[in-house]
Lipoprotein (Salinimicrobium marinum), 125 residues
Amino acid sequence: MKQIITFALFTSVLLVSCSEKEEDLQLNLQNACIAGNPLEMEWMQNLVEELECGKYSCRVSILKSNYNGESVFYVQMTDPLCNGVNEIDLYNCVGEKIEEFTIEESGEFIDDHWNEAEEIFSCNE
């Protein structure tokens, strides 16, 4: 009986650890921070599609920066001829929305992080 219980416990632990490793692998496959080309990530492609490039005349970019010690991605209007600030949503490396800024907070974020932002994609140049 002890052997059956031991075997059942061992099998459960093995199954749990395998499923955790599989989840980690899936997260790594969608991790734009470690990808050779972040635009190949499915969630990043969806973000590009949401920009509707060509529909508007202002240049819009996907930028990478740091926020609270974490790499983040966000969309920003980067055309100097278009005056305005959009509400910025921050996404982590696997595409989860981690912060939604108001227009005022977005302006503060841009002011604080403009010099470290890296352009990943832009449309309507």
